[in-house]
Design brief:
Layout: E1 3-4, H1 5-12, E2 15-17, E3 23-24, E4 26-27, E5 37-41, E6 57-61, E7 73-77, H2 80-94, E8 100-101, E9 106-107, E10 112-113, E11 118-119, E12 124-125, E13 130-131, E14 136-137, E15 142-143, E16 148-149, E17 154-155, E18 160-161, E19 166-167, E20 172-173, E21 178-179, E22 186-189, E23 192-195, E24 201-204, E25 209-210, E26 215-216, E27 223-226, E28 231-232, E29 237-238, E30 243-244, E31 249-250, E32 255-256, E33 261-262, E34 267-268, E35 273-274, E36 279-280, E37 285-286, E38 291-292, E39 301-303, E40 308-309, H3 310-345
Parallel strand pairs: 4-5, 5-6, 6-7, 8-11, 9-12, 10-13, 11-14, 12-15, 13-16, 14-17, 15-18, 16-19, 17-20, 18-21, 19-24, 20-25, 21-26, 24-27, 25-28, 26-29, 27-30, 28-31, 29-32, 30-33, 31-34, 32-35, 33-36, 34-37, 35-38, 37-39
Antiparallel strand pairs: 1-3, 2-7, 22-23, 39-40
Length: 346
Amino acid sequence: MEFSAQQIAAFVQGEIVGDAQVTVNTFAKIEEGKPGSITFLANPKYTHFIYDTEASIVLVNRDFVAEKPIKATLIKVDNAYETLAKLMALYEKSMGHRTGISSMAVIADSAKIGSDVFIGAYAVIDEGAWIGSNTQIYPHTYIGKNVHIGEDSLLYSGVNVYHDCKIGNRVTLHSGVVIGADGFGFAPTPTGYNKIPQIGNVIIEDDVEIGANTCVDRATMGSTIVHKGVKLDNLIQIAHNDEIGANTVIAAQSGLAGSAKMGEWCVIAGQVGISGHLTIGNHVTLGPQSGIISSIPDGKTMIGSLPMEDKGWFKVQAIMRRLPDMYRELNALRKELNELKKDKTE
């Protein structure tokens, strides 16, 4: 399917600079652009690519000023990155929606299936489950007893949703996601560890996306809750009774221990570890490999394995690079001081 620059500009309310009739039928990175593709420029580090790209159309911010001629047609918009995301979503939607239930799927008689649902081969829908309209469930996915899945959701192959969990509308779960496995609860005894039954569930609200092989454990009692708009990367652990605030994003290989509460609009980088029973405020940013052992108020930016505010952390990193020189200077000063003491005593 092809779209002209004029059609795209009308859709995104952009300003055309160049040929309004040029057409595109695919997307590309700016450094890999080919004729017939559309790309974007948002990061100034990539500006030099715009002068050589073979892409037919480039989305740029309205304040972009070219320093030399550009072959591509430009469409100036308020935010090039956000505009590209909208166009890609439109493109994905135009590719169609899978429907139909495979004869090799296993669906309990008591399960309720909405309209225009897709259920692939070897998927299992257990007793009392409820699947909303327009939801797609790919092969080899298991939906447990009394699970509720809303409308327009997408569960890729190999997803497992344990009993009694609730998943909202427009939720995407990538392959290998496990929702509702037992929380890590064991009571020590003189002879070993006794398992504490995990009798709660998991609630995933609307517009959440969860990356491959991420696990959200069920609550010991009550619910583990992932609020609306949250985006979780691959390989993340959300433990029992955690609560993740709306529109928070968490990068790969991070983990929250049990009963941690995270606020709204937080940004958590990769390999962050958060201890249990802590409260992380709203709009908090945690840098990569931060180890969080105490609660954090709203609006803080923390970084480092011994977390501190970002300005202090950067100062420490700058000093660490100078430590070898400082160590040599210290030894030289110590030697001079010892010689002065020696001369004084003689």
